[in-house]
Amino acid sequence: MLLKILFLQSGITRAPMVVASFLAIIFSLFFGTAQPLVASELPMGAMDETPEVSEVLVRKEERRLYLLSGDQVVRSYRIGLGDNPSGHKLYEGDERTPEGEYILDWRNPNSDFYKSIHISYPNNQDRELASAWGLDPGGSIMIHGLPTGVGDMAFAYLGLDWTDGCIAVSNEEMDEIWQLVADGTPIRIVP
Question: What angle do CA 15, 19, 23 make, to 5 degrees?
Fold first, then answer.
C-alpha cells in the first residue's frame, strides 16, 4: 500500500506501479517476510517426549506422509511421489508409487538420495498382478531425501512429483524420519 501511495503522489502511471508491487512481493518472499521451510509441520520438541512410531501412513492424493503412534499423528510431512502418481504401481518403469500395506524393512545411509528406507514392495499380490500381465513388478521403492549433490537446487524439488515411484521428502525431514522410524515398522500407502 505504501508503494501505491508513493507512486500516486509522484504521478507514476498504473503499469509501473503494478510491476513495482510485484517486485516488492518477490523481494519480501526471498529476503524478509517469508517463513523459513521447516522439517515437520508439527513441532519436534525433545526426542525423549516423542511417542514410539507404530505405523507410517501415506495419503497419495493429499501428498502427505504421517508418522503415527497408535491413532495419534506424531509428525506430518509434505511428500513428492512418482512422476505418474495416480493408481497402484503395476510394473517396473511405470513411475507410480505403490498402494497397499508393506513393511519398512531396511535402510541405506549411502544411497543415491539423501538416506533411504526401503518399502517391502513388491509383495506376493504385486508379483502375481505383474505376472498376469507378463511384466516385472519392479522394486527398490524407498522413502528418501533429495538426490545427493543437489546443493542449491534443493528448493526445486520440494512439492513436486519427481521420483520413479518412491516417496521423497526434504533432507531435514528425512533426518527426522530416519531417527523416529525403526526397521520393521508397517507402512500403509493409500490413494
Answer: 165
Q: Which residues pair with 58 in a beta bridge?
A: 65, 189
The mean per-residue pLDDT over the stretch 130-143 comes to 92
Name the E strands within the chain. 55-59, 64-69, 72-78, 100-108, 116-119, 142-144, 167-168, 185-190
HSE value, Cβ hemisphere, 13 Å, CA-based, for 6: 8
C-alpha cell at 77: 510431512
Q: Looking at the annotation, which residues are catalytic?
A: 144, 166
| CATH among 2.40.440.10, 3.50.4.10, 3.30.420.240, 2.10.70.10 for 47-190 | 2.40.440.10
pTM, to two decimals: 0.73
